[in-house]
Design brief:
The chain has about 325 residues and is an all-alpha fold. Strands 1-2 form a two-stranded antiparallel sheet. A hairpin with a 4-residue loop joins strand 1 and strand 2. The longest helix has 29 residues. The two termini are about 40 Å apart. The model has no long low-confidence stretch (mean pLDDT about 95). The structure holds Phenylacetyl coenzyme A. Phenylacetyl coenzyme A (FAQ) binds next to helix 2, helix 6 and helix 9. The site of Phenylacetyl coenzyme A has 30 residues, from helix 2, helix 6 and helix 9.
Amino acid sequence: MTETLEHHFDETIAHERRIEPRDWVPDGYRKTMIRQIAQHAHSEIIGMQPEGNWITRAPSLRRKAILLAKVQDEAGHGMYLYSAAETLGADRAELTEMLISGRQKYSSIFNYPTLTFADVGVIGWLVDGAAICNQVPLCRSSYGPYARAMVRICKEESFHQRQGYELLMTMMRGTQAQRDMVQDATNRFWWPSLMMFGPPDASSPNTAQSMAWGIKRHTNDELRQRFVDMSVPQADKLGVSLPDPELRWNAERGHYDFGAVDWDEFTQVVKGNGPCNVQRVAHRRKAHEDGAWVREAAMAHATKAKQPAELER
Ligand code: FAQ
């Protein structure tokens, strides 16, 4: 029996067809998929904090409305992703518990502070830019609910990236102080954005198996290179420099060469020792605890709403 199921799974992957919730999958596939989707969902939810920090201090009503909409979109992305994880048998409450107890990861990038309003623009440009670069290929991921969620998420992330770039363009046309803010934010977010793609291929334990299962379509280093190639002309057009003296076009490779990422910093941030890890998780835990009454009220309402139908039986 298991052999037939395994054969069906292998054939589905080999023919680039989608795995759906009712299909049999090997334990490793389910575990990897839940891990990746949960980490992604947690990133969207924790990712609301750095920009959310600026909603009350946005410089105009227009910028406030845009930022509110963007942060709300991230919440929506988290919700689709938790739903996708649930189709694999994961429990949303347990996933949240794993996040706030530090047992599950979220993207390293959200452990850096947002010091000025230019950071909002740079997050849109570089962080959403890196997210799109990583997530467009995931629209072809082998797990149906994840791939479909990714289509909508990528459309919204494209809007996010454009709003960030437009904000930076506006600031670059402003005063020297505003241009300096954009340059400073770019300097702080460039390297952490490169870290978003994960460790180098040689030290990525999951990539080979995830590629074989069609969960990931490109390696971490391939996507990082694609992001660098995409960002250099955008930085030129904006009029900012990227903080990497080794960045130069390599005609032979047809790509930009770039300097070494500080992987020790990455490891420290992932381990919980980044500048804002403690604050981010504490804030998420408090929001979860403060929201307990909403969950209880919704459950009580659902129970009450079921009662008349049950009484009729
Ligand atoms: N941060 O073997 P690999 C967003 C972990 S975008 C923290 O290479 P894998 C949008 C990894 O989980 C950000 N941990 O792992 C937004 C693994 O952990 P393990 C979220 C990281 O999975 C924008 C270990 O290191 N996007 O939120 C990171 O094959 C603006 C070994 O790594 C996604 O999650 C990291 N940067 O590849 C929101 C995309 N990198 O095994 C608000 C989907 C790696 O110890 C504002 N995910 N780790 O449990 C993926 O594509 C993959 O999971 C990778 C990692 C590429 C992130």
